[in-house]
Write a structure and sequence with these properties.
Blueprint (H helix, E strand, L loop, with lengths): L3 E6 H4 L7 E7 L11 E3 L6 E3 L6 E5 L6 E4 L2 E5 L4 H10 L15 H6 L3 E2 L2 E2 L4 E6 L2 E4 L5 E2 L2 E2 L7 E5 L6 H12 L5 E5 L9 H7 L6 E2 L2 E3 L6 E4 L5 H19 L8 E3 L1
Parallel strand pairs: 2-5, 3-5, 4-19
Antiparallel strand pairs: 1-2, 6-7, 7-14, 8-9, 10-11, 10-14, 12-13, 15-18, 16-17, 17-18
């Protein structure tokens, strides 16, 4: 299957329900001559905040990169594969360690790029290697940390170590943790947790839990979730983000760093 384009309305497509309508490149072939270097991969747009006036060029991986294969005690997963599909596969095949994918939205490409997870469970704990246009790169050669990687190219495939022993108890525990999070439109955690602290605690401590500008709010359920009550705008979201950064810096001397990826 060749590359194509499709029109995406980010107000409907993105998890935070903000953004304009853009022509998006659907990639079904690994690049050869850096032809995708000007494009930003957006996956399922679960942790993105995009201005309707953004001039960036966006792309998604197409169905050629939606697969799960096993060989030599490794699991090869295309980066257009959803977290839900991989979780179902591991459950059916009694594969351990990826139970934390329960209710963690997104495609594998995005989850790898931001080293997604829940508390101490994160994608890179179980990775063997990734595949880019330059071939396979071993985990030890990748610069990654909490909710962050220094991968600056498209990841087409992720390879996991295979270990048997799927745990329904662990899966249920992760589901329970995520059920405590707001169920409204949001982009997940707004800020990364600072070292030895929690962004939600800091936002609550400066009086912003439940604080609302227009239709955007720091959730009264969990202060680190920026939620959209229906018609929230990019400007309202940015105003809240900047307000939290300012107040937390003034009160605690801590620079909050966004976990949400912003394109203006």
């Amino acid at each position: 299957m060749k590359n194509e384009t499709k029109t995406i309305d980010f107000k409907r497509y993105s998890s935070i329900h903000i953004g304009g309508t853009f022509e998006v490149l659907v990639i079904n072939e690994i690049e050869k001559e850096n032809e995708y270097q000007d494009f930003q991969i957006i996956g399922r747009a679960n942790n993105l905040l995009i201005s309707p006036n953004c001039k960036k060029k966006f792309a998604i991986l197409g169905e050629n990169f939606d697969y799960i294969e096993e060989k030599n005690s490794l699991i090869y997963v295309g980066c257009a594969t959803s977290s839900g599909k991989l979780l179902t596969y591991t459950r059916k095949n009694n594969i351990a360690n990826l139970e934390f994918l329960a209710k963690l939205p997104g495609n594998l490409g995005g989850l790898v790029k931001m080293n997604a997870g829940l508390k101490e469970w994160e994608v890179f704990n179980y990775i063997h290697s990734i595949k880019t246009k330059d071939g396979y790169i071993l985990k030890k050669d990748i610069d990654f940390s909490y909710r962050e990687t220094k991968i600056d190219t498209i990841v087409y495939e992720v390879v996991f170590h295979k270990e048997l022993g799927f745990s329904k108890e662990k899966q249920n525990e992760f589901v329970k943790m995520r059920d405590n999070q707001p169920q409204m439109a949001s982009a997940g955690s707004c800020f990364k947790n600072p070292k030895n602290d929690f962004a939600g605690r800091l936002i609550e401590a400066v009086g912003l839990k439940g604080h609302r500008i227009g239709d955007m709010e720091f959730s009264s359920t969990h202060a680190n979730f920026l939620v959209n009550h229906g018609d929230g705008t990019f400007e309202e979201a940015i105003s809240l983000i900047n307000l939290a950064k300012q107040k937390v810096k003034e009160e605690f001397g801590i620079e909050l760093e966004t976990e949400i990826i912003i394109f203006e």
